[in-house]
Amino acid sequence: MRLTPLVRRILAPNPSPFTYSGTQTYIVGNGAVAVIDPGPDDPAHLAAIRAALANETVVAICCTHTHRDHSPAAAPLKAATGAEIVGCAPLVLDDKGPRADAAFDRSYAPDRVLADGERLAGEGWTLEAVATPGHTSNHLCFALARECALFTGDHVMGWSTTVVSPPDGDMAAYMESLALLMERDDAIYYPAHGDPVEKPHKLVRGLMGHRRQREGQILRLLGKGTGEIPAMVQHMYRGIDPRLHPAAGRSVLAHLIDLRDRGVVREADDLWALAD
Ligand SMILES: [Zn+2]
Questions:
Q1: In angstroms, what is the span from residue 162 Cα to ligand 1's centroid?
Q2: Distance in Å, CA 154 to ligand 1 centroid
Q3: CA 221 → CA 68, 228, 233, 248, 265, distances in Å?
Q4: What pTM was computed for the model?
Q5: Which of 64, 106, 133, 166 gives 20 to 30 Å between its CA and that of 174?
Q6: pLDDT tens for residues 184-224?
């Protein structure tokens, strides 16, 4: 599906309560192109990408982060096209224990890692990496200056708030990365899941307010002595698909860790309470 003269989109066949209609792979440029978020390693999706690239040269395969619905197709696409894998860093494993869970693509092996502000270019386009940790520690957005567009991966999505799952997901970093977007003047976002976002600042302001509201709910529940995450989720996420409750619990944990780091709450044996 062509969105603009420079941007095309291909939907992967992986719909779920977490991916909405599926992961959206973007193709940037004509002639010499970049592929952003090649998606899951699914033969039908790879065939669709290759068909769209029939008369093109792929100069880069870019990944926003290494969740399994985003990066696994990078390796087979590289094998098929010879293009380099460029973009986010592989996940760094931390001394304090594994940061990755089953949602991460451990096989991701980039040829070149882009730091914040680094660019890559093809005919008539440049993409600039915008470091946006929070959803994952290695998350990058990609800015297409020519169209004032930002490919937002899972940092900002067009259909739902993003999951922030510790230890790799970090609520404080996520809030800072949202604030960073408020300082930019992108006219449109192309998220990996959901529709393009045509009023980016309005959405980001709403997302920041939503997280502050969640934090307020958590503090009120702690004030009433509700200190276990599953009980908090029951109160806070009434009406959502129960399959999303574990993910909601991860986001609540991310808030609690942030509050603990700020000295507002404390934890002992999975029971959380307001700090004295
Ligand atoms: Zn993700």
A1: 8
A2: 5
A3: 34, 10, 10, 16, 12
A4: 0.94
A5: 106
A6: 999 999 999 999 999 999 999 999 999 999 999 999 999 99
